[in-house]
Amino acid sequence: MINVIISGGPGCGKGTQSDLISERFQLAHLSTGHLLRIEIANFSEIGREAQGYIAAGNLVPDEMILRLLAKTVDELPVSHGVIFDGYPRNVAQAEALDKLMEERGKQIDIFLDLQVPDEVMVERMMKRAQTSNRSDDTPETCRHRVQVYHEQTAPVKDYYVKKGICQTVDATGTIESIFREIEKIFSKMM
Which of 15, 19, 70, 74 stands the most exposed, by the fewest C-beta atoms within 10 Å? Predict the structure, then answer.
């Protein structure tokens, strides 16, 4: 069993690589956005509460995300590892996630940092906008999302570097070449 955080800027390929890692290494793929959509669709207590924040244009509070993650981790088979896709997004969330895992006798084993230059992130988001009709991915919003990543999420890497579990991957290549590098990291850990 291995527990992983995959991180990197917007458009770095976290979701794509998470799917491949999940399938290859039999890890539960936990994306907070996906989990929230499921809870909202199921009209669960967390889903109804989250929908209220989202409808008002607000972010779902960290405490609620942690409750959702705790519920999800607790429902997994004991032997099942996890890949956290795009979470935590700041150091406070990283500390809270570490505590959540520790309370369950688990730990984060790898912080996988997908590195992509800013201009490549913007290009990828713009391509995604064209293919998926995402009107929110304008050049300005894409650059803003990269800036927010550097200000808020990038410091999470330093947190995990200090813990000695950060692994950096150059994510500018093809999906396949990036995944081969990730497989090398996992084979050393297992």
Answer: 74
Domain count of the fold of the chain: 1
pTM: 0.89
Give the domain range for residue 101. Answer: 3-29+82-189
Tell me if 2 sits within 8 A of 109, measured CB to CB: yes
> Which of 38, 49, 43, 99 has the alpha carbon at shortest distance from 72?
38
Give the CATH number for residue 93.
3.40.50.300
| The pLDDT of residue 53 | 87
Arithmetic mean of pLDDT over the chain:
91
Give the residue-averaged pLDDT of 103-111.
95
pLDDT band at 25 (very low <50, low <70, confident <90, very high): very high
Is 75 part of any domain?
Answer: no
Nearest to 2 by CA among 112, 107, 123: 107
Check residue 136 and give its pLDDT.
63
Tell which residue, 74, 111, 86, 80, has the closest CA to residue 30. Answer: 86
Beta-carbon contacts of residue 164 (< 8 Å; ≥ 6 apart) = none
